[in-house]
């Protein structure tokens, strides 16, 4: 565009110059070698410009002829380079599609048309082709060559890192990731890999420093960076809780500023504050996280914040949590546990049944079994609640990569990934599946058998009309209890002259004692049976 504009301006200037000369005619006289030459001014200007143009054309022709060998060579070189790049492009596409034969063919053609030192992508094509063909040693050598080249260092390090991870060489993978992170802090894969490696080693200070650098370079998303920073601070606070509670408190509170829904950070902060006898602030931290995430560990720590509290005091604190987050299964279960400890069994039963209606789980049904044992002691009702616990979903736990942990951990022990643990129900193919199926909470409460009378009664077999239909689930507590067989104790022979009470031997006392659960092959049983014959019979159970 600039050249066209310059050409137009030049033509316009020439036209204006000729027009100016045409308006001002004149004569031009020239004497050269004894000859006098006269012509008009317009004609002289035209001849001069034509001569200048002829000189330029002659110079261009001479230069073109002089440089023609180089021009021809450059043309064929460019044509060869274009063919090489076309082969390189086709080879990369074939490698991405998994066509090893075409990728290898195009790699050889590209290497023959393009110099490797001029185009390092040929190494990438050959490495990818070797990976497709299963030649991992050859691919690793290519990646090493790329790592030594400044232009392809990042690409080579990533290839070496992936190969080390595939082989399980975690130390080599860590070194490659650290080299890439040092040379190029903007690489997210290198930053995350190095972050995971340092977290696995417990190097929390180095991990936090690396994360700060990546956040400054905008490698990670702001939300993701804040979450990882909170997790790292919580992990460092957990490691310092026993030795330095003050530093642990500061790190945990700083973690809550980055993520106010991180339950482990709130727990560590509250524990550190409780150790400093700052119960008010520690309770405030727990209450704040409780309003957002009702968690059983938060409730347990909050209720037992003071070691010297009575069961009634703990019940009051549990009721406080219920007021902060009402109509919640965790809140109701917490109140039920505290009421059970305080021996307020009616309140405990009421809250536990309300919790099981909201979210039935294994622990709540087991809690109902404990309440039943403390309240009535009826074995049938206790077995009823325990049977419901077997049919209910499992309780949430800290789970990561299919592994559960009793406490929160910052790194997964399986994959080594940072912030992998989540509070959720662990995977179990057997959870909630039994022969009887799963009843709804209301059905489970309505099907609770009545309290058995204090005196034992002979349990008769149910009539045929009351038997459950075929295929209908029968609760364990609803099954008829077999009547125990009576125990017949052998008659004791009275001696003619009973000895004094102080003269009774241990053998005679043993003979007079009834048999409860003695095995049939016991020597004493065999001797007595042989001695008395048909006078006595034993029915053991």
From TrEMBL:
<dbReference type="InterPro" id="IPR011990">
    <property type="entry name" value="TPR-like_helical_dom_sf"/>
</dbReference>
<dbReference type="InterPro" id="IPR010817">
    <property type="entry name" value="HemY_N"/>
</dbReference>
<feature type="domain" description="HemY N-terminal">
    <location>
        <begin position="26"/>
        <end position="133"/>
    </location>
</feature>
<keyword id="KW-0812">Transmembrane</keyword>
<dbReference type="Pfam" id="PF07219">
    <property type="entry name" value="HemY_N"/>
</dbReference>
<feature type="compositionally biased region" description="Basic and acidic residues">
    <location>
        <begin position="519"/>
        <end position="534"/>
    </location>
</feature>
<feature type="region of interest" description="Disordered">
    <location>
        <begin position="432"/>
        <end position="541"/>
    </location>
</feature>
<feature type="compositionally biased region" description="Basic and acidic residues">
    <location>
        <begin position="489"/>
        <end position="511"/>
    </location>
</feature>
<dbReference type="GO" id="GO:0016020">
    <property type="term" value="C:membrane"/>
</dbReference>
<feature type="transmembrane region" description="Helical">
    <location>
        <begin position="45"/>
        <end position="67"/>
    </location>
</feature>
<protein>
    <submittedName>
        <fullName>HemY protein</fullName>
    </submittedName>
</protein>
<keyword id="KW-1133">Transmembrane helix</keyword>
<keyword id="KW-0472">Membrane</keyword>
<dbReference type="InterPro" id="IPR016982">
    <property type="entry name" value="Mms48"/>
</dbReference>
